[in-house]
Amino acid sequence: MKPQAPHPEPPGAFARAVMVLASGAVVAHGITAVSMPLLSRLYSPEHFGLLAVFAGCLAVLSVAACLRYELAIALPESDTQAQELVVLSLACCVGTSLLLALVVALAPDWLVARLGQPGLAPYLWLFPLGLLAAGAFATMQAWSVRRKAFGLLARSRVAQSACGAGTQLAVGATTGHPVGLLLGNVLNAGVGSLVMGRAAWSAWRATPLQRLWPQAKAYRRFPLYSTAEALANSAAIQLPVILIAAQVAPAEAGQLSMAMFAAQAPLSLIGTAISQAYLSRAPESLRQGQLGAFSVAVLGNLVRAGAGPLLAVGILAPLLFPLVFGAQWQRAGHLLSWMTPWFLLQFLAVPLSMALHVCSRQRAALMLQLGGLALRVGLVLLSLHWAAAWTPEVYALSGGVFYLAYLLVILWAVGASGRSALREMLAQARPVAAWVGGAVLAAGAGRLVHA
């Protein structure tokens, strides 16, 4: 197949892509949101702490499952080359999953000792399955984004949430055993991979294996730089939770994970949709010399769509959590208030972060993530030594510092001026102020009622 020349998208194509993806995310997160008040009563904070450690370890490993070749799928002008990258990415995923299965089989006691969670010992077999499912889904998602198959992506998200939440509810209602939480987490990615699996099979059949090595060499910057970058980024988020579970209490990690879920639901709802639509257009915008202006416009859309709701959730969380999830989750509501600056800046930075790869700034991205890992884990270790009770709050504040630096580096990479970005963000101040004002009034009324 000959390289295909880029063609201009019709007006409003980006907005329509966001709407299709967001509609699937609305339904998917609606399913999850309905299930969470039930799950929080079927499982204890200790069970959620076990899930936090399992999901955290899997999150760190899964970003390297395909050696980041899935990120390169959007870049070639030729669909044939992109298809070869799909097969290369899946082959790497199978290889890393088999390697992890070998480690689990040969050294289970060593793994449990390193994690500090004996309760995970019966479930180590889920790790290689989860890694395979997560890597396959990341590859299929990247291919669907390239093909602009946004409807398929939306349907896969709904199937993921329905299967994951259904499994967790069924096992929790019948046995109350924490394996339901872990198995639902694995099936979430696995079902998404199956929904989009036909494209993978077609690519595998059509691609000669001898074509994989040239693609592996052509895009070697991704495994060389992006894998370490992604590992550092994920470890900076997940390793402190694992440390808190081991050094403070599993229940405290469970409270943290519940707070993170409540904030990340709106993050994923809009942010993921905008991120995928951004990636589908960013390479062409770069070729046209418009990536800076395009990125600033997307930043404004992010502020308008998510800043207000995120700030409102942070203000109301201490009052809402005991009502929605049960009295035992009040601590999670207070932690979410501390996490609000982190999640707000993450919501603005992460959808634009693919620009670092589109612009071949993998080395800068790696240095940034290594610095973030040192900052966040270092502060948590210091807090565990000097003020262990405040470790979750320290962890929350470190996230805000890191994602502010992350956003500034992205704007530098795309060539956007700080003044234009600030102007675009301030233009969205009115709807944000309305959300914040309403939340403050609601919080005041709630405290008067409880007084």
From TrEMBL:
> Subcellular localization, per the record?
Cell membrane
Q: Does the keyword Zinc-finger apply?
A: no
Concerning InterPro entries, the annotation shows: Poly_Biosynth_Transport (IPR050833)
Bilayer disposition of the protein? Multi-pass membrane protein
Swiss-Prot/TrEMBL keywords:
Cell membrane, Membrane, Transmembrane, Transmembrane helix
Q: Name one Pfam family in it.
A: Polysacc_synt_3
UniProt superkingdom:
Bacteria
Keyword Lipoprotein carried by entry = no
- The transmembrane residues are 13-36, 48-65, 85-111, 123-143, 291-321, 341-359, 366-388, 394-415
Q: Which PANTHER family match?
A: POLYSACCHARIDE BIOSYNTHESIS PROTEIN, PST FAMILY PREDICTED COLANIC ACID TRANSPORTER
Q: What is this protein called?
A: Oligosaccharide flippase family protein
State the organism named in the record: Roseateles paludis
Organismal lineage: Bacteria, Pseudomonadati, Pseudomonadota, Betaproteobacteria, Burkholderiales
